[in-house]
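## tool: complex_structure
## caller: assistant
## args:
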Amino acid sequence: MEAILSVERLQAGYRGLNILWDVDIEVKEREVVSVIGPNGAGKTTLLKAIFGLIESKEGEIKFNGVRINDLKPHKRVDIGLTYVPSERELFPELTVEENLELGAYTKRARNNKDNLLEQVFEFFPRLKERKDQLAGTLSGGEQQMLAIARALMSAPRLLLLDEPSTGLAPIVTLSIYEKLKELTSELSILIAEQNVHQAFAISDRIYILENGRTVASGKPSELSEDSLIKSAYFGVSE
Amino acid sequence: MIEVLIDGILFGLQLALLAVGLVLIFGLGGVLNLAHGEFVIITGITAGMLSSLGVNILISITTGVLLAGVAGVAMDRTLLRPVYKLSGEMEILVGLFLTLGLAAAIDGVIAYLFPGLHFSINVPVEAISFFGLAFRPSSLIAGLVAVISLLLLLFFLRNTTTGKAIRAILQNQTGARLCGINVDNIRTLVFLLGGIMAGLAGVAQGLSSSVDPGAGLELTSLALIVSVVGGVRSVYGAIIAGLLLGIVNAVVSYLVGTYLALIILLVVVIGVVLFKPSGLFARSV
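## result:
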């Protein structure tokens, strides 16, 4: 299978402070990959660097075989990359529908906006019910749905998702994850997650990030056999 | 008294034209543009000089307004470049210093080139009367120009894709980037618009009275006051606050004289800021 995203020896961070030291990650077509790791491991920084909100200092980010290190975020959206941060970053004073319309801002998506909107509403019927409501008045779960839906409006090939369970009740998280599973027939997903159980349940492969380095990777079944990982991430000691 | 009200509305419209640009530039660029009043001066001088040289009045005005827009774009693309790389307090402060410096520089050059001159735009038409009130046609044209440009701006922000992108950036810049909006280009566009709107304020002023080339900073402070009263991120707020302060200023000037009027105006502003620190309209656009 073709890799849609490949990150090689990536170093990135903020002025004078590296967060990512050496990260290798690959996501193949229609694959769900999770990056797990403790707080401060660099999961969010990794997604931001892949999307271009943070400049990468060393290493390479390839999308569909093409190096994209120097592309601005808006160009990355144009070629099929999209990012849903844990803060969601919605437009609180615009309606649900206006938020979604802005999601289809790039020329490529704009020409197909009506179709995309129909698909997204079909996928999230709750959002259709609330289409004229201001985004700021939605519940946390609905806002997360809207953030994902807005990202889908750009007709992406790879969805970057940061901590989709942040601030949500477990039952709501579950329903969001069920929706994500349905999406995988259409696109690839890279999730950064602290909620290890959800990550293991949905992912084809997992990477473990610690102190800005990828320290382990594999299928969920392989990793959950590893006793070190078991004790570190599932709180089970043997 | 009705004449006073009309004067107030006219002045209010000019304030609104000035303040909408200031609000948009602050919302998108994070720069409180202390050189904003200079756009008015650039237009006033250009249009006044060209028309006094015998150039067609419409061409003079258009050139003046466009030049203000170009000045806005030039500011964004050169002087303010380094500001956008900063964040938080530093961004605001460096933006203030740079635009204040620019304003002082423009003021200095203009005072050197045109000492003590005023520029006005003469429209050679007779006064007309309406329901027994006499209107100077130039004031009427000034009012129309202002109303039409403000309505066009609102239509643009409400109904075009680019307008929606501007509103999106005003609410959440990161969110706008996530949608694939090229925030840098839209910011440049907003400087163009801000320059043009302030230029149109200059046209309105040149038509109804005259533009004083030394009044740049004074105009900037008026626009600042309007945007603070209106809510510093709200375009509607800027328009309503502009009209409100224009009318209050005219009525109070008529009743107690200009000097006291300025004091009363500032008291009104302090009152608004005390009771509603985010301005009358906290919502953006």
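## assistant note: Residues 2-29 of chain B form the longest helix (28 residues). Residues 2-275 of chain B form a domain with the ABC transporter involved in vitamin B12 uptake, BtuC fold (CATH 1.10.3470). Handing back to user.
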